[in-house]
Amino acid sequence: MNDRISMPLIPGDYAGLPPGAARCPGPSAQDIVARDENPPPPVLRESRYEFLGDADIDYRRYTSREHYEQEMTHVWAKTWQWACREEHIPQVGDYYVYEVGPHSVLVVRTESGIKAYYNSCLHRGTKLRPEEGMGSAQELRCPYHGWTWSLEGRLKSVPCAWDFPHVKPEAYSLPEVKVGLWGGFVFINLDENAPSLESYLEVLPEHFRDWDLGQRYTELHMGKVLPCNWKTGLEAFIESYHVLETHPQLLHGTGDANVQYDLYGDHVTRFYAVGGVNSPHLDKPLGEQELVNTMLIGDRSVVSDDLVVGEGETARIVMARFLRKILGEKYATDLSGVSDAEMIDTIEYHLFPNMILFPGVSLPMVYRFRPLGMEPERCLFEILFLRPVPDSGQQPDPPEMVLVGEEESYSVVPGLDPVLARVYDQDTANLRSQQLGFKASKKAGQTLGNYQEARIRHFERTVDRYLARAAAAK
Ligand code: FES
Ligand SMILES: [Fe+2]
After folding, report:
1. Is it true that 19-61+215-473 and 81-197 share their CATH fold?
2. What value does the mean pLDDT take over residues 234-251?
């Protein structure tokens, strides 16, 4: 690309700084937001990074069945995972089946609150509900021989009960799975000795105090099976380093190389990408008005005096003001108190193991990467768009997931912005090739950037910590 600035390409040119201390030349995310008209909230003004080492990450973590089985037992059966939104099960009797690897959990709204059960009959093991998804029932009846439980999990009836004198109803209640609620999400944890969800969430409740995701509704839910390990998929979405090569169309309007990466406790990391600016890679940066014009590339129909950059203004200020107005009208909610950053930036939190949350208003996604069955090299990638509940409180029912075929473009999803569909297509195209490349490699592992790929290292370190804890407990 001839419009990119010439930066030194050989890593050794930056020798001399302590590892992890180098940053992309140019303004930082914090320098940029300091000029905003409506400044970001304090949680976006802090940064937290530490150097975690620079050893390669072994490819077998992504390909080996043994490693996968270890994760199933020591990560997926031990961690809090978002199963569904509360809006999926609004009435008593509504349920949602959540599946991850071989695990299957039946989440049910009951008179006494939300409960979750192992989705397996106590007679001969049949799944009480055959597959992932939502439904409604007044009792939980096994489709094989008809054993039936109340929503509260108590055994109600056994056909031909005379043949089962050894079945004492009090010993045959459905075994429960721990449930926690946060931000409109229903979390489950298969470990009966798990710490509370609140402590597991670390800084999230504090950071999201003014980003109440409980006041959002699901506008769009799509999924795609990816031919890669769940960690391969997730790791493509927690760094911005690939934007330069994979999404060159985003360079006008995205501060890709000056993204801020933050590492919190074991379970939470963040990146903060400022929008409405030039990529530091561009040789000929655009002027502020040109940036505004370029950012509208997805919607040329919008022409407005509101999009003129006034004296002393930046593209960020103008775009935030504009989006505040049109999204406020579209979703019938007052966005006047929302900062420029929350309106236009990409603010992304990762909650271990597989949840990625975007609290921003114009990019309001949640991602989830789930292992499928016992296949180490396949996963389900889901994307939800969570929009603000209108001030009237009226919200549509959550949609069923639109499943995009493995070879299909995201552009088939009704209501998905074509600009975003292209970005997701570009991302997923890399993943098959990367997963195959792991196995074709002479080299034993991946080499990460100290700063831009720090979240990947942090994430893999947490996987290791869970596996090590299990080994220590033996
Ligand atoms: S396996 Fe469920 S009733 Fe027989
Ligand atoms: Fe991407």
Report:
1. no
2. 94
Burial of 45 (0-12, 13-18, 19+ CB in 10 A): middle
How does pLDDT run across 329-353, given as a tens digit for each residue? 888 889 999 999 999 999 999 999 9
Ligand 1 lined by 174 (C-beta under 6 Å) = no
The CATH class, in words, for 81-197 is mainly beta
CATH architecture of 19-61+215-473: Alpha-Beta Complex (3.90)
Q: Is the CB of 194 under 6 A from ligand 1?
A: no
Helix-helix angle 288-295:315-330, to 10 degrees: 30
Atom of ligand 1 minimally distant from the CA of 128: 2
Residue appearing with tokens 């990529």: 279
- Tell which one of 117, 120, 121 to mutate to probe ligand 1, the residue whose CB is within 8 A of the most ligand atoms: 121
Residues 6+ apart with CB under 8 A from 57: 445, 446, 448, 456, 457, 460
> How much distance in Å is there from the Cα of 156 to the middle of ligand 1?
13
Give me the pLDDT at residue 304, please: 67
Q: How many residues does the chain have?
A: 474
Given a cut of 50, whether residue 2 has pLDDT beyond it is no
Tell me what percent of the residues of the chain surpass a pLDDT of 70. Answer: 95
Domain map (residue ranges) of the chain = 19-61+215-473, 81-197
**Measuring from atom 1 of ligand 1, which residue has the nearest CA?**
124
How does the average pLDDT of the chain come out, rounded? Answer: 93
Which residues does 441 contact at the CB level (< 8 Å), separation at least 6?
59
Q: Is the CB of 164 under 6 A from ligand 1?
A: no
Distance 174 CA to ligand 1 centre (A): 13
Q: Kindly report the CA angle at 422 between 417 and 427, in degrees rounded to 5?
A: 125
Does the Cβ of 14 fall within 6 Å of ligand 1?
no
**Type and span of the H or E element at 339:** none
| Other CB atoms within 10 Å distance of the CB of residue 238 | 21
What is the Cα gyration radius of the chain?
24
Q: Give the CA-trace dihedral at 416, 430, 224, 64, to 10 degrees.
A: -160
Structure tokens at 148: 């039936």
Token output for 129: 């509900």
Q: Is the pLDDT of residue 298 over 60?
A: no
Of ligand 1's listed atoms, the one at least distance from the Cα of 146 is 3
